[in-house]
Write a structure and sequence with these properties.
Blueprint lengths: L2 E5 L3 H15 L8 H10 L4 E6 L2 E11 L2 E9 L8 H15 L4 E5 L5 H6 L3 E8 L5 H6 L5 E8 L2 E7 L5 H10 L4 E9 L2
Parallel strand pairs: 4-5
Antiparallel strand pairs: 1-2, 2-3, 3-4, 5-9, 6-8, 6-9, 7-8
The protein binds coenzyme A (COA).
The site of coenzyme A has 19 residues, from helix 1, strand 4, helix 3 and helix 4.
C-alpha cells in the first residue's frame, strides 16, 4: 500500500480533490470555494496538498496565505482511511511548506469535535465568540473571568471576542451559547512554526 502526500499538480487535480472534500465538509462554505482555491493554487501551489493511496485520493488540506499567516481551510481524510496518521502527516507537510515560503503562523477554525486532532498537531486553542449585537463587547467580556482577551472588535453590528484558552473549555463555550442565544462560538487554532 503506497501512500503519497504531495502538492496538487494542477487545476484538474484540484477539481478532483475539491469534489473529494465536498461531501465530507459540506463545501463550499464561506470563502472555501473551488474558485478561491484555484486562485490560491496559482499563487502558492505548495499549500494545496493531496494524500493518495494506490492511485486513489484519500485526503487533502487546502491552505492559503492571508495577511501575515497561513489560513488552513478544508482538512479531510476519507472515512475508511482515518486514524492512520494521514491527517497529521498532511498537516506536517503544510507546516514544512509554509516554513519554506517564509511564513511563521498557521491559523484555522475547527469544526466541533475535531479539537483533539488539532491539539495533537501542536496547535494552541483560542475561543472565538461573536454576537450579532453592536454594543455587547462589555457583556461578552464579563462572562469570562479566566482567560486573556487577545483580540476584540465591535463593528458592522457585531461584537467579537477572542480568548486565549490553554485548554478546550467546553463549559465556557456552552455558557456563552446559553447566555447569548444568538451568538456563535468556535475554536480557532494557532500554531507558531518558528
Ligand atoms: C479530522 C481528520 C482530518 C483527522 O484525520 P486522521 O487522518 O483521521 O487523523 P490522524 O490519524 O492523523 O490522527 C491524529 C491524532 O488525532 C486524533 N484524532 C483524529 N481525528 C479526531 C477526531 N475527529 N476527534 C478526536 N481526535 C481525533 C487521533 O486519534 C490521533 O491521535 P493519536 O496520535 O493520539 O493516535 C479526519 O478525521 C476527517 O477528515 N474528519 C472529517 C472531516 C473533518 O472534520 N475535518 C476537519 C475540519 S475542521
Amino acid at each position: 500500500m503506497s501512500l503519497s502526500i504531495r502538492a496538487i499538480s494542477g487545476l484538474d487535480e484540484l477539481k478532483d480533490v475539491y469534489a473529494f472534500a465536498t461531501p465530507i465538509l459540506a463545501l463550499p462554505s464561506g470563502i472555501h470555494t473551488l474558485e478561491y482555491y484555484a486562485e490560491q493554487l496559482a499563487k502558492t501551489p505548495q499549500l494545496s496538498v493531496v494524500a493518495e493511496q494506490d492511485g486513489r485520493i484519500c485526503g487533502c488540506i487546502l491552505a492559503s496565505v492571508e495577511g501575515d499567516h497561513v489560513l488552513v481551510g478544508p482538512v479531510a481524510v476519507a472515512a475508511d482511511s482515518r486514524g492512520k496518521g494521514i491527517g497529521s502527516a498532511m498537516m506536517r507537510e503544510i507546516e514544512q511548506q509554509a516554513k519554506e515560503i517564509g511564513q511563521d503562523t498557521l491559523v484555522l477554525g475547527a469544526l466541533e469535535g475535531t479539537e483533539t486532532f488539532y491539539l495533537g498537531c501542536g496547535f494552541q486553542p483560542n475561543l472565538f465568540i461573536q454576537a450579532p449585537e453592536p454594543d455587547s463587547g462589555e457583556r461578552l467580556r464579563s462572562l469570562n473571568q479566566r482567560y486573556e482577551v487577545i483580540w476584540e472588535s465591535q463593528q458592522d453590528g457585531w461584537s467579537k471576542l477572542l480568548l486565549r484558552t490553554p485548554v478546550i473549555d467546553k463549559d465556557l463555550q456552552r455558557e456563552y451559547q446559553r447566555r447569548f442565544p444568538a451568538c456563535s462560538t468556535q475554536y480557532v487554532f494557532v500554531k507558531h512554526i518558528r
